[in-house]
Design a protein that fits this description.
With about 170 residues, the chain is α/β, with parallel strands linked by helices. It has seven helices and six strands. Strand 4 and strand 5 (about 105-110) form a beta hairpin. The protein is globular, with a radius of gyration of 16 Å. The two termini are about 30 Å apart.
Length: about 170
């Protein structure tokens, strides 16, 4: 509720923001009017190879379902921006289903994609706070790396972009 630096690494984001009021963060996000608040969301691109037709068939899920969920997430983020006037930045990624990372200032909530289905109800979410020898710094840097990697304004090699930035 009080966080001013919010960073979310999502895939489809249905439970996080994509189902409006029933989502984890929707009610909190629409109240983020504090000066200096920055919300950054990395969300899966429809072109992601991890959301392809063959992968959908393998999982027994129509690929159109994923695309509709992604459109809904995009719409909900636009709604936050246009109706609630929340400062939200978003970028598209093509990362595999490895991590879900939610960073709120100096606390990260991290879970791994361990299960092929119902990951939300089956996987432990770890709370990692900033501090000496904390994994918080690694997850924070990883998010920042991905943010740079998927910067649509950068036309060069994203790895070199990151290497020259760090």
């Amino acid at each position: 509720r009080r966080a001013s630096d919010v960073r979310l690494l999502l895939q489809i984001g249905r439970r996080e923001l994509g189902d409006s009021t029933s989502s984890y963060f929707w009610s909190l996000a629409k109240e983020k009017h504090q000066p200096g608040t920055r919300i950054r969301i990395l969300r899966a691109s429809e072109e992601s190879p991890f959301l392809s037709e063959p992968r959908a068939r393998l999982r027994g899920t129509p690929v159109e379902r994923w695309h509709e969920d992604l459109r809904r997430l995009r719409s909900e983020i636009s709604f936050l921006r246009d109706v609630y006037h929340i400062q939200v930045e978003e970028r598209l990624h093509a990362e595999p289903y490895l991590w879900r990372i939610f960073i709120f200032d100096d606390v990260a909530y991290v879970s791994a994609y361990l299960h092929p289905r119902d990951n939300d109800s089956k996987t432990v979410v770890y709370k990692v706070q900033d501090g000496d020898n904390s994994l918080f710094n690694v997850f924070s840097k990883y998010f920042d790396y991905l943010w740079k990697k998927y910067d649509p304004c950068y036309g060069g090699d994203p790895v070199q972009h990151w290497a020259s930035w760090e």
